[in-house]
Every structure is written in C-alpha cells, then in structure tokens.
Design a protein that fits this description.
It is a single chain. By secondary structure, the chain is α/β, with parallel strands linked by helices. It has one domain: Alpha/Beta hydrolase fold, catalytic domain (Rossmann fold, 3-Layer(aba) Sandwich), CATH 3.40.50.1820. The protein contains 11 helices and 9 strands. The strands form 2 sheets. The protein has a 7-stranded mixed sheet, sandwiched between helices. Strand 1 and strand 2 form a beta hairpin. The N and C termini lie far apart (35 Å).
C-alpha cells in the first residue's frame, strides 16, 4: 500500500522498463488491466492503482473530486511510486478524468497517451444512469436495489461481449466504499469544469504520441467523442462496448504493445 495524501492506495507494479500507468474506470479496479499488462510487462514497468475508494484502496475522508485535486492525486502517486522519468499514460472512463487532468497540469511528465472510452468535455451529456447517481437519496436507493441480475443486465447493455464470469468478477469486487465513492465522484463532477482543460488536452495530444482506442457500441459515450481529444491516431472498434480492454484484450493488447514500441523509435 502507498500513502498518497492520506489515501491508502493498492498498486499493481509489474515488469521492468519504461513505465506505463493504467487508470481504471467505474465500477472497476486495477484488475481490469491485467490482460493488457500481460501483453507488455516483458518490456515495460506497468503500474495500475485501485483509485481512491475503489477495490483495495481506501480514500481519505476529505478526498476532493475536483479536476485540480484528481490531477494532484495522480502526481502524488507518481512520486510515491518513485517514477522520475516521463511515463506512458493509459486511461479509461473516470480514470480519464484523473489521468488526463494530470497530463494537462504536468505535460512534461507524460511520454504518450492511450485513451479508451472516456469523457473529458463540457459537451458530454449525462446518461440516465448518471442522472440517477447524481440525485441524492435516489442514487443510494438505486444502488441498494441493484441485484446481481440487474447489474449483469446493465453491464451487458454496456458491453454485450462481456462474459458472465467477467461480470461476476466485477460485481464481486464492488464494496460499500466503492458505491459511496461513485456517488461522491459523479455528484462532484460538473461538466462546465472541463472548460479549458479540454482545449489544453487537445494541445498536448497534438504534441506527443497519442492514440484513442474507441469502441463504437458504447451506450454511455457517443462515438463522436473519440475525436474530441485531438489524438494523432483514432482507432475505432465497431461491435464492441464500453469495456474494450476486457472485450478485446488480445486485439488491443497487441495494438498497445505496437504503439509503445513506436514511441521508442
């Protein structure tokens, strides 16, 4: 466990070589990256934390979910992990808000960007599910009433190629603390807060190796948002849902490995 600004952070740390930092989404943990890490750990040091309040990590009571503080958390994590050279950043879902905010604030510490389906734009429309989570009492009630069957149904809606075993693993790792943190995170997130951060991100993505790996059948984030990051390469995967790293692990694992190899040349 690392102590990062009062947060007790579980960190997967495997492999040797140029560092790659993986930041997961909701309702995931660092385990979502295990398949991709297997593809590259022979040539890279792979670091994947459970974000504060998720999985085995414990959030500080005063954890602040503003973009400024999310960026600060990532920088604290980087320092605590002993990383002194620029690193490759891989993000998905809310991990994008953590990681991309950090990249904007400390661009000199970022060697490359790989972005899976995530929203980092003031134009993103909240989904019905997000609106429920953002509503006091209603969000708590919805979480309490979400059975394994209902959770499986929602996950299949988000990514039809996920297996029942994969969904069960995700469900079994959800803790009461994760549920509370998810509500806290989405209630603190205001789309207007991305104004300015998004333009700085586009500028950064145009200057360093950057790619978007986007699954077009994501019901939570429209395909058009893949082009909002200003990445040098946008690769689309029709027929895949929100959890591309789980649905097409070998496919995107090979793509990530090739991309990282190209940054060396």
């Amino acid at each position: 466990m690392l102590n990062v600004d009062g947060n007790q952070v579980h960190l997967v740390d495997k492999g040797i070589g140029p560092p790659v930092l993986f930041l997961h989404g909701n309702p995931d943990t660092s385990d979502v990256w295990s398949g991709l890490i297997e593809h590259i750990q022979s040539e890279h040091r792979c670091l994947a934390p459970d974000l504060p309040g998720y999985g085995r990590s414990i959030a500080a009571q005063n954890f602040n979910c503003s973009l400024e503080h999310l960026a600060g958390f990532v920088d604290g994590l980087v320092l605590q992990a002993g990383l002194t050279e620029p690193l490759h950043l891989v993000v998905h879902d809310i991990g994008g808000q953590f990681g991309l905010a950090w990249a904007v604030k400390w661009p000199e510490k970022v060697r490359s960007l790989t972005i899976f389906n995530t929203a980092f734009s003031p134009d993103y429309p909240w989904t019905t599910l997000h609106k429920i989570w953002r509503t006091p009492l209603i969000g708590e009630l919805a979480q309490r009433l979400t059975s394994r069957r209902a959770f499986t149904r929602e996950m299949k809606k988000g990514a039809s190629r996920l297996t029942t075993a994969q969904i069960d693993q995700i469900y079994d790792r959800i803790t009461p603390a994760m549920k509370k943190m998810a509500l806290r995170f989405f209630r603190a997130s205001e789309l207007s807060h991305f104004q300015g951060w998004d333009t700085q991100l586009r500028d950064l993505a145009s200057r360093i190796p950057s790619q978007v790996l986007w699954s077009d059948d994501d019901p939570y984030i429209a395909p058009a948002f893949a082009d909002r990051f200003g990445a040098q390469v946008v690769r689309r995967y029709p027929g895949y849902g929100h959890w591309l790293a789980l649905e097409a692990t070998d496919l995107v694992g090979r793509e990530l490995k090739a991309f990282l190899a190209r940054t060396r040349s």
